[in-house]
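User: Please fill in residues for this 386-position structure.
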């Protein structure tokens, strides 16, 4: 079935905005601006960047309310147990736990992104499949099929290939040391444990309420934004040195210094705006793709987003090309397809079914040929002709 123009637009919007989200965040990390001490340094404020991400998610709540007011979105949810419709009768606090997981994971990943390549950041996020599968078995009593276990194993191989590529081929032009890259990669992979926890929590406690996805993303954005903004205050007084962060006085996060840098360089402001806007449209496009097409299509488009970020990083010389990283990406993609039971396994089943059908019809044709060429028929045929 061919895609409609609207579906094509949604797919393009998801890939573009998803790519811009990672690219804009990495671009902000690489930009330099005068800080509160009068020094020109790189913009290194991952927690404030996480705030901008949550602000983008929060805008989904505003968008949902607009759609409800215009009649394009129902504010009612479906209760599967009682088989009734209700007007959003759920406690919004159920989104607090997932929001805290998202807050921790996003902040950790943004720290890792500052220490490694944008493409590696995008590829290593595939580790979420490994931890989601394991946690689902442990806490959701999910019975994993053999192809899912195989997919997890292949994903691990792909992750190892990407990690090894980063370690053995550090790019001197990127100003990232080998230790920095290793630390960044490990932080991104470790953050996927928290992301997987978030998914398990959402599946166990939230999906039974069948909350409209756009509303769910909005509530998580609201809780994440408010909580992180509050945490910025104690972060200002926590001294961690300048080994990872580059804030005046060695602070864990200095929001005042961040705003000073933003005001001194319009490109930093543009990059943060790009994060906010792109995450809002990315969530909208992603949810719409799942609704209009399928979750499988969304997964494939997300892989295209990873490839787009990698190609962009090569074009703007944020990193150099390495065959091992490409190989790791392909292995990761194969593992994801196996785990999600898309493309590879269905194609293999179709090929086997067609082969079995051919082998069934082949003896039939052979028997027919043998009967037509038997001596009895031949003699009968001769007598008739005579």
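Assistant: Residues filled in for all 386 positions:
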């Amino acid at each position: 079935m061919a895609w409609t123009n609207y579906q094509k637009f949604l797919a393009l919007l998801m890939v573009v905005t998803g790519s811009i989200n990672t690219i804009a965040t990495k671009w902000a990390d690489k930009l330099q601006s005068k800080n509160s001490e009068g020094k020109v340094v790189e913009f290194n404020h991952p927690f404030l960047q996480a705030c901008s991400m949550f602000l983008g998610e929060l805008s989904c709540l505003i968008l949902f309310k607009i759609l409800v007011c215009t009649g394009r979105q129902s504010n009612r949810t479906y209760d599967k147990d009682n088989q009734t419709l209700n007007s959003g009768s759920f406690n919004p606090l159920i989104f607090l736990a997932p929001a805290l997981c998202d807050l921790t994971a996003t902040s950790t990943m943004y720290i890792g992104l500052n220490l490694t390549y944008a493409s590696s950041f995008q590829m290593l996020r595939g580790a979420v499949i490994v931890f989601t599968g394991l946690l689902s078995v442990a806490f959701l009593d999910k019975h994993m099929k053999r192809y899912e276990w195989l997919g997890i194993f292949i994903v691990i191989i792909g992750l190892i290939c990407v990690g090894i590529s980063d370690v053995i081929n550090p790019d001197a032009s990127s100003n990232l040391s080998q230790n920095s890259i290793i630390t960044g990669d490990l932080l991104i992979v470790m953050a996927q444990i928290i992301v997987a926890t978030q998914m398990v929590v959402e599946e166990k406690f939230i999906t039974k309420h069948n909350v409209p996805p756009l509303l769910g993303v909005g509530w998580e954005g609201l809780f994440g934004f408010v909580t992180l903004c509050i945490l910025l205050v104690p972060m200002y007084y926590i001294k961690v040195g300048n080994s990872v962060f580059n804030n005046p006085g060695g602070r864990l996060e200095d929001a005042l210094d961040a705003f000073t840098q933003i005001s001194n360089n319009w490109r930093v402001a543009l990059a943060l705006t790009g994060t906010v806007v792109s995450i809002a449209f990315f969530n909208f496009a992603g949810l719409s793709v799942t609704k209009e097409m399928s979750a499988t299509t969304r997964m494939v488009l997300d892989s295209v987003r990873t490839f787009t970020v990698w190609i962009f990083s090569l074009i703007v010389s944020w990193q150099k090309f390495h065959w091992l990283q490409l190989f790791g990406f392909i292995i990761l993609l194969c593992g994801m397809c196996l785990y999600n039971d898309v493309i590879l396994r269905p194609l293999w089943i179709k090929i086997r079914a067609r082969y079995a059908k051919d082998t069934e019809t082949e003896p039939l044709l052979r028997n027919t040929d043998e009967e037509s060429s038997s001596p009895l028929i031949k003699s009968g045929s001769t007598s008739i002709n005579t």
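For context: The first helix runs from residue 5 to 30.
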